[in-house]
Amino acid sequence: QYFGVYRSFCWEHRPQQPLQPRPCQDNTCPICLHTVEDKISYKTMGCPACQDALFHRQCIQRLALHAGIAFRCPRCLNQEQFMTDMLTMGIRLSKRPPSWESDQEVRPSDQRHGRCDAATCFCLGGREHVEAYGPWQLWLCSSCAAEGTHQYCSSLGNSIYSWECNTC
After folding, report:
1. Tens digit of pLDDT for each residue in 142-163?
2. In which residue ranges of the chain is CATH 3.30.40.10 found?
3. CA spacing 20 to 30 A to 93: which of 2, 132, 144, 163?
4. For the whole model, what pTM was predicted?
């Protein structure tokens, strides 16, 4: 926990969210827009205020670091209860203004990043061409999701499960 005496817990005794998320047709993380488990676990967290938002732990941690003092639930926008619960669950917060206020390139968006930002894009279809699988699959930065690359353009093999941009 990144507050007070900075307590640390083993797997069995770690704090757990006492949430019972409502059954929902949409099991999409509102941050990365990928599928998320429909139950609370170490890797899947929920909003204690609305109990509708489920997101990946990695995604909410990245959001916390980028949002800084503006950190809140990405679905219901609750701040106080959400921030307190995330701190208890071990999410580290940044005490600075949101990164998108200081960097004109970074803005919150409702759309997923959709282009290859590699220094040299080899795709004949162009930087915006994306395929679901194969060399022209678009990989988003696993830390900020603000940059992407075609699998081929950054020489990412089939055994790679995440990619991080040069900025992160």
Report:
1. 877 888 999 999 988 776 677 8
2. 111-167
3. 163
4. 0.57
